[in-house]
Amino acid sequence: EVSRARSLSQVHGLKNAEDVENYSGFLTVDSQYNSSLFFWFFPSKNKTAPLLLWLQGGPGSSSLFGMFYENGPFVVSEDLNILKREYSWTNAFSMLYIDNPVGAGFSFTLGREGYAENQVDIVKGLYKALQQFFRLFPEQRQNDFYIAGESYAAKYITYLSLLICLQKQKGISNLKESLNLKGVAIGNGFFDPLSYINLSETFFSRGLIDQKQANDLRRGEKKLIKLVQIGQYSKAYGLLMSLIWDVQTFTGYSSLENVLHSHNSEDENNYKNYLNLPEVRKAIHVGKLRFDEPSVMVKYYLQDDFMQSNKVILERLLNFNIKILIYNGNLDLLVPTASQEMLLGSLNWKFSEEFKRAKREIWQNERGFIIGYKKRARNLSFISIRNAGHLVPHDEPLYAFEMIKKFVEN
């Protein structure tokens, strides 16, 4: 039955991709509400290559955004054909993309009760999905396993990784179920909302707003911090959205992902149009489902969760012996590198003092070009990448690929 399910999930008939072995389909995470997560898997030709799970943030963004726009094997052209990506992460790893949580991308649920309202809901579903994935592809179980992603996915990744570590520690996870987790890599991670609520400073120091506008924002930020401190998370979320709207009005920027680009690039929509082509939907086994991204429903159900900190989870995870890479593009206006640096310096874990004292080094290529800056203590590495914003693998594909390879190879 497993081998039949596996062969049914194999993708055939994608133009320009006939030579790429890949599988896609649905993993059921809650039969009561028929909730299913969509996956797309690209096994490496090297049978012992590490397996890397990629999760997108949002919340409610599809991981197929990362796959097509950042690090997967395909890029979609304007005329909706697929081309091969030069620095695809599939060149070094088996890559698994899961639309998470239920409601994101092609993942669906038939009842409102099926939507996740917190990290526990999300991770329960993800963990179930992974167990099903490894039943379909048992040969992947002994390979090193890494979890990567960006932005809001920082929360999913740290929660999921902590669950896997705790299962292992308690010996609950029998060998059939245990996951060979070796490390996590998080780009521009949204761990702790209060650490990034300094829009006034971020935009004023870049010369994008004036003193009066900065003062207006500052007043809102003070209110926002109070709301979070007293646990009024939904109200805080509403206020944050209105502050972001103010920033967009002041600056004329519709996107805050990269200081150099005031609007998202037109080609960001190519992959959405491609995924709604009937022949593509047929090839990847999604039937009549429309691809809708990002999901308004996912955001709606997680607005209470959005403003809650994940710092403690990150600290607990650091105390396990798995490698953690936090990387940031230095042009990001949503999760500024300086804020991330301060957050990491404030963490309380067994080697926090050592991390604070660690020397920051310049990372440059053989021609002397400065790629970025790196800092490391024990199992925590922090890398700031120059000339990249919120979407590092898209903005600096070669260096993002080199970074992830070095991290996995140690």
TrEMBL record:
It holds the Pfam family Peptidase_S10. GO terms for molecular function: serine-type carboxypeptidase activity. GO terms for biological process: proteolysis. InterPro entries: AB_hydrolase_fold, Peptidase_S10, Ser_caboxypep_his_AS. Keywords: Carboxypeptidase, Glycoprotein, Hydrolase, Protease, Signal. Gene3D superfamilies: alpha/beta hydrolase. Belongs to the peptidase S10 family. This is Serine carboxypeptidase-like protein. The lineage of its organism: Eukaryota, Metazoa, Ecdysozoa, Arthropoda, Chelicerata.
